[in-house]
Design a protein that fits this description.
Number of strands: 13
Number of domains: 2
CATH topology of the largest domain: Dehydroquinate synthase-like, alpha domain
CATH architecture of the largest domain: Up-down Bundle
Number of helices: 14
Largest sheet: 7 strands, mixed
Order of helices and strands: EEHEHEHEHEHEEEHHHHHHHHEEEEH
């Protein structure tokens, strides 16, 4: 497979999303960014770095002025300002200037932090996304939202910084453990719920091929997801309106993620949050009982959780009140008015959220 998706900003080309099944086009794609006179720092983590960092460095060294690697310990708990400070220190010691570049090699944690470092170092330098997880390939690497967690609160410190390039090698998915891959499916399913009923139906009918990592199925879900996010991002680069619909399942999901101290993966928490959002949509008569059941079934069939335990509804509700999607004291809750049609609802009450949270607690 080979595909190039161009993301526009104000109807002008902004950056390309390259989808390949190898690293063969990486050098060519980066050379278009005039890396000859640039120093490059590959930012990666301890799980991904040993698999790909040295290979990527070898590829980039053929064209770039200098390539170094910075590796941090893997895990959401390390998505914080302490790691950002370490990145700054590496860049300063290596005398990186505004002409130089970062490369995010890894999943969503790596991409978010590298993007934030790129947005803030010397008031902004270029960066490239090389996402290696399904979650990052279909969601977090696209659109320029960057950030770090602050005292356990998800992405409370961040900036909008568009990448110069997103390079997706689908073969990296073969190195994911099963739980990580399934976690990424939480974000894939989301696009069916919020944007594309036909895609939702296709996912429902192709579960076995997807879970068996069939090449054509993987290429299809990545392409469809990237196109879906591209359209939403182009319409709303800085999340003033439609782009908020991408947060379907995230409000309660992020709260659960924090309360569970990140023992659940992001996509797992989003899956639980989607069930809660479906429950509110049902109670508001926006979806039928059949649509609710179909929604819960597809989440379960992809082996994603639809409930959790050992936490209180009160603590989860309190955590939602600190969510970054709060707007003048009102939370922008994403519901669906039928499968494939997301809406932003500012009328969801704390009682309604509390009932939905209780619905996903065992």
């Amino acid at each position: 497979m080979s595909e190039c998706i161009n993301v526009l900003y104000n109807n002008k080309p902004c950056y390309d999303i390259i989808i390949e099944n190898s690293w063969d086009k990486l050098s060519e794609s980066c050379e278009r960014l005039n890396i000859k006179n640039k120093k490059i720092c590959i930012v990666t983590e301890s799980n991904v770095g040993p698999l790909y960092a040295y290979k990527i460095r070898q590829i980039l060294e053929k064209s770039a002025k200098k390539v170094i690697i910075y590796q941090f310990p893997a895990g959401e708990k390390n998505k914080n300002l302490n790691i950002i400070n370490e990145i700054y220190e590496v860049l300063i010691k290596e005398k990186f200037d505004r002409n130089d570049m970062l490369v995010a090699l890894g999943g969503g944690v790596t991409g978010d932090m590298t993007g934030f470092a790129a947005a803030t170092y010397l008031r902004g330098i270029q960066f490239i996304q090389i996402p290696t997880s399904l979650l990052a390939q279909v969601d977090s690497s696209i659109g320029g939202k960057t950030g770090v967690d602050f005292k356990g609160y998800k992405n409370m410190v961040g900036a909008f910084k568009q990448p110069a390039l997103v390079y997706i090698n689908t073969e990296t998915l073969k190195s994911l453990n099963n739980r990580e891959f399934i976690s990424g499916m939480g974000e894939v399913i989301k696009y069916g719920f919020i944007k594309d009923k036909d895609f939702f139906d296709w996912l429902s009918q192709n579960i076995t091929d997807i879970l068996n990592l069939d090449d054509s199925a993987l290429e299809y879900i990545i392409s469809k997801s990237c196109h879906a996010k591209k359209i939403v991002v182009e319409n709303d680069f800085t999340e003033k309106g439609e782009r908020a619909t991408l947060n379907f399942g995230h409000t309660i999901g992020h709260a659960i993620e924090k309360i569970k101290d990140f023992s659940l993966l992001h996509g797992e928490c989003v899956a639980i949050g989607m069930k809660a959002a479906l429950y509110i949509s049902l109670k508001k008569n926006m979806i039928t009982e059949d649509e609710f059941n179909r929604g819960v079934k597809i989440i379960s069939n992809f082996k994603l959780p639809i409930s959790t335990s050992d936490i209180s509804a009160e603590d989860v509700l309190e955590a939602t009140m600190h969510d970054k999607k709060m707007d003048s004291g009102v939370i922008k809750f994403i519901l669906i008015n039928g499968i494939g049609n997301a809406i932003i609802d500012r009328t969801v009450t704390q009682d309604e959220m509390s009932d939905a949270i209780k619905n996903v607690l065992e």
